[in-house]
Amino acid sequence: MATLQQCNRVNSGSEDDPTEHKDWERWLESHARGLLFFARQQTRCEQDAQDLVQDAVVECWKRHSGDSPPPLSLVYATIRRRAIDLARKDERRAGREAAVLREEQQIWFDSGVEERERDRLLQEAMNNLPLIYREVVALKVWGGLSFAEIAAALEVPANTAASRYRYGLVELRKLTKGRF
Q: Which residue in 44, 68, 38, 30 sits closest to 56, CA to CA?
């Protein structure tokens, strides 16, 4: 963690008074470990904890009037609130991802009554394909992309896309053998 004095110099260009923020430096040095420990208890990973501490200190610094550091309880409360916000954001994202996953398991094909059983079997077979094959088969068959376009979309060589397509078709034949 850069010292507050270093951050201040970068942000304001003020290098005239090196003692200007000594209180902040001492405060940060004496409380940083405790703040980080508390943030670790509130988050799922070290990087999130470090971000929370930094954001909370900056936020409290901006809100607190004067050159003296804010009350320690305010910083802890800010860390806690930001951790709750982060957890809510992560839960919403997980919910959206789960919804997308549920949508993937819905019927993919628009067919008549007589074709629904075939479509369900094909969908089941596609769901059982390994992801690397499923994405290439879906992009080739339903997306109508060339192997060069698939390669660009998946960030793999075109030959890899082509071989995954071939292997995917072989796997699909195995999964649908005797069903069609």
A: 38
Q: For residue 2, what pLDDT is reported?
A: 47
Q: Please report whether residue 106 resides in a domain.
A: no
**pLDDT above 70 for 134:** yes
Per-residue pLDDT tens over the stretch 113-122:
667 788 888 8
Q: What is the domain extent for residue 60?
A: 4-101
Distance CA 69, CA 78 (A): 14
Q: Exposure string (b/e) for 111-137, b if CB count within 10 Å is 16 or more?
A: eeeeeeeeeeebbebbeebeeebbbbb
Tokens of 135: 């994405």
**Entry pTM:** 0.47
The helix/strand/coil state of 14 is coil
Q: Rounded to an integer, what distance in angstroms lies between the CA atom of residue 165 and that of residue 171?
A: 10
3 state SS of 21: coil
